[in-house]
Design a protein that fits this description.
Strands 4-3-2-1-5-8-7-6 form an 8-stranded mixed β-sheet, sandwiched between helices. Helix content is 37%, strand content 14%. The protein is globular. By secondary structure, the protein is α+β, with helices and mostly antiparallel strands. The longest helix is centred in the C-terminal third of the chain and has 20 residues. It has one domain: L-fuculose-1-phosphate Aldolase, CATH 3.40.225. Bound molecules: 1,3-dihydroxyacetonephosphate (13P) and zinc ion. Zinc ion (ZN) binds next to loops.
């Protein structure tokens, strides 16, 4: 199989795994991933992660022209903003994952650091997660908000909507967004309890040792 055919299969396999575990339901969520020649494979608008067809993924060439497959996700401006501002981005994943969305609705969440520092892995894989305001789905202003972060954040949380994470490839982006959802779940499970988060010294240790962008 060609590298592009492999990537098509991988996107659909990972999407189905996310769907089967309830990480995004119905026709919510979208994935994009760079092809070897600088193009982009993107999940079609209105498609369900549970039954994506590898042959129908939207294909863009390296100039950003739609050259094949179904109409792409309406969140293209959001995905494009990550590629434009983060040269290391090889894939972007967006979900409507329940616990992250619930956490985004709570008063008192820090918009600059959406997740409380509960586990080392969340810090290693996500850095600081920026909470963005409420936008209508498909609003190009989301792309402007991501551009405003100047490539400093790999993960953002769209308030009352869902997380968006860029990674070096589609597997890395999926693993990181799963970490975001799991951490939001832990935050909710421990909300209001006498919680013991990681200390500043522990966070600094993780940030230094694993070269995490923690601006
Ligand atoms: O998550 C979604 C909108 O935010 C799904 O939209 P698409 O079906 O256009 O990808
Ligand atoms: Zn969405």
């Amino acid at each position: 199989m060609s590298a592009e055919a492999d990537l098509r299969e991988l996107i659909c396999t990972l999407a189905k795994s996310l769907y089967d575990r309830g990480l995004t339901g119905g026709s919510s969520g979208n994935i994009s991933a760079r092809t070897g020649d600088g193009g982009l494979l993107v999940t079609p608008t209105g498609s369900s992660f549970g039954r994506l067809d590898p042959a129908r993924l939207s294909l863009f060439d390296s100039k950003g022209i739609h050259v094949g497959g179904d109409k792409p996700t309406k969140e293209m401006p959001l995905h494009s903003a990550f590629y434009e501002t983060r040269s290391t981005a090889g894939a972007v994943v967006h979900l409507h994952s329940c616990h992250a969305v619930a956490l985004s609705m709570l008063e008192g969440v820090d918009p600059d650091n959406f997740l409380p520092p509960l586990t080392p892995y969340a810090i290693m894989k996500l850095g600081k997660v920026k909470l963005l305001p409420v936008f209508l789905p498909g609003d190009p202003a989301m792309g402007d908000a991501v551009r405003g972060l100047a490539g400093k954040r790999s993960a953002v949380m769209l308030a009352n909507h869902g997380p968006v994470v860029a990674g070096k490839d589609v597997e890395a982006a999926c693993y990181a967004i799963e970490e975001l959802e799991d951490t939001a779940r832990l935050a909710l499970l421990t909300h209001g309890l006498p919680r013991r988060p990681l200390s500043d010294a522990q966070i600094n240790d993780i940030v230094t040792r694993f070269d995490v962008d923690w601006e």
